[in-house]
Amino acid sequence: MPRIIMFRGRKALDTWPQELAAGQAVKTRRVGGKEIQRLRYGAEEKLAELGPEPCESCCANPGELHALGCYAERCARCAAPVDQCECAAR
After folding, report:
1. Contacts of 72 (CB under 8 A, 6+ apart)
2. What's the chain look like in SS3?
3. What's the farthest any 2 CA atoms get from each other in the chain?
4. For a tag on the chain, would you pick the N or C end, based on fewer CB atoms within 10 A?
5. 21-35 pLDDT per residue, tens
6. Contact assessment for residue 81 and residue 72, using Cβ atoms and an 8 Å cutoff
7. Would you call 20 exposed, middle or buried from its count of C-beta atoms within 10 A (0-12, 13-18, 19+)?
8. Which residues contact 43 (CB under 8 A, 6 or more apart)?
9. How many C-beta atoms surround the C-beta of residue 67 within 10 A?
């Protein structure tokens, strides 16, 4: 049974560090039939001035890739949240 731990200053399931680490291995995503680089946390234009705080959703540190499925990850092409991006439909 998963336990709650403190991870980067936030409560998280004890499996979360491994899930975040797994997201680091996936460097691209398929958009409109092409592979594009995923944006690293903090590289997003609106978030560039965040400082050293981890992502409020997935706990990625600035410069790391978000965990797969993180609602805060942005599309490198259109800057929309990845889960709302319509680039793949174009």
Report:
1. 41, 55, 56, 57, 58, 66, 81
2. CCCEEEECCEEEECCHHHHHHHHHCCCEEEECCEEEECCECCCCHHHCCCCCCCCCCCCCCCCCECCCCCCCCECCCCCCEHHHCCHHHC
3. 42
4. N
5. 999 999 998 877 889
6. yes
7. buried
8. none
9. 23
